[in-house]
């Protein structure tokens, strides 16, 4: 390898090189922009403590800005023989600016460099996930309000149980997302702490100003203890993955419902034919593959925390190369979840609802509890009312009264969608993404 940062007076075995680099060069491309931002903050701080000249800082920052622009255009490449993104950025600076480029690594290790890259990448991606969740949430609330008066059967044990409504069904998944958003927020807050300055995991003898890099990068605070900062590798990814898995769990369940309700035996919802897929042999098929794939991809995403946990299982304190492998499952997961969220919002928007399900008498028994409650409201003890209606059903004499009155909070007649929206708004207002956005804008000014 031509440009190893740790090159000395011997050549590393080629097989060892191939195996230790693995897929890292490809995965590090996700981190290129953030590696540049981290370096900008680091060298600004190095200048403030006298380890770089003002003029050197100016030139280095200008060149880093160019590299950022290259990465933003998707044109950043890790050249053949270069080990990772960190080495590539340093190489580009050195090629352009000579010895000045070699000064930027004072007080830093690739261990805290990759940590800060991952944090900057993750908080950015979490914002995109949050935005995509909100779009799906709004779509679900809209559908819930639109169909608030359309009844459907509710099931327990997959047996017809009680009256439900499309308003309730859509709204339930909206409220699910409002809860998932709390996990995303916790994940964001844990991510938004600065590990830079922990170096290899034990700090540095240079008088690093970590408060300064924390502010420059718009982190809420730092991971104070340098040993803990390094221990956060893997833990941050796992916790973020838990939040993503929570969202994915909501999506997977919703997708299963949609597949089931779309089946001819239910016929509660339908997709416009251009949103279905066909069969090579059965000419009549209109398959809901979109929901099936959302379900499978979301189920896969739910395994992410476990995958990460097992990769880093039982590692003691300190850096290990094992941690590199987490990138393979973690970095691509954001695009996968975003894609599912965007497609879910798209397809929910297109979904058509059957407003005449209850014309079919097979669903009549779902009104049995309404009848029991009516008798009980008129003074009959509940247990006697239950028995009376039960015997009517057994004798085939039950006549449903479909005029139902559910009025309490969260029920068919009182969905409380405005309250669910307030929960969501409250959580969203506590993210403070503007801190991150302003800091990054300032660094790139
Ligand atoms: N590619 C490495 C990783 O993802 C970067 C850090 C390398 N540090 C080291 N001590 N070898 O972990």
Automatic annotation (TrEMBL):
Its main location: cytoplasm. It holds the Pfam family Lyase_1. It comes from the Bacteria. PROSITE patterns: FUMARATE_LYASES. Residues 28-300 form the Fumarate lyase N-terminal domain. Its EC number is 4.3.2.1. Keywords: Amino-acid biosynthesis, Arginine biosynthesis, Cytoplasm, Lyase. It catalyses: 2-(N(omega)-L-arginino)succinate = fumarate + L-arginine. Pathway: Amino-acid biosynthesis; L-arginine biosynthesis; L-arginine from L-ornithine and carbamoyl phosphate: step 3/3. CDD domains: Argininosuccinate_lyase. GO terms for molecular function: argininosuccinate lyase activity. It is found in: Cytoplasm. Belongs to the lyase 1 family. Argininosuccinate lyase subfamily. This is Argininosuccinate lyase. It comes from Segatella sinensis. The gene is argH.
